[in-house]
Amino acid sequence: ENQKSQDLRLCPHCGLPFSVLQRNCGTFVCGRDYHGNGQFGYGCGTTFQLDNAQRYRPDESVLAPYRAALAMQQSRFSEHEHAVSLWNSARDVKLPITSYEIGRNVSKRSLLPSSSFLS
Question: Rounded to whole angstroms, how far apart are CA atoms 12 and 46?
Fold first, then answer.
């Protein structure tokens, strides 16, 4: 729709969209190609000047579902980026090396951090 708004104009009489070549004489006949060459197949046949033809306006009812889907995908992508960022920051955390020793008291049979034996 946005591209159409840049490339198309509307017939001032019937509103039929038509494309405009960069090189043109400024006079158009609705429904015919340049200077009336070719078959007259559609359009109202009105002759008009390019200055009288308004630009095509995007149809918001066509664009609304696409914009909603795009916003949802952007939100999902943002959530994914946040999760990746958390995992990357967790990967970079430097943890102190901790060794465990089996407690000398056989009845407890537990793993104790080695620092507990220092006290």
Answer: 9
Count the Cβ atoms, other than its own, within 10 Å of residue 28. Answer: 25
CA–CA separation, 2 and 14 (whole Å): 22
- The per-residue pLDDT for range 13-30, each reduced to its tens digit, is 998 888 877 767 788 888
* 78-109 b/e (C-beta count within 10 Å ≥ 16 → b): eeeeeeeeeeeeeeeeeeeeeeeeeeeeeeee
7's tokens = 């490339």
Structure token digits, residue 113? 């951090």
Contact (Cβ atoms closer than 8 angstroms) between residue 18 and residue 47: no
pTM above 0.90, yes or no: no
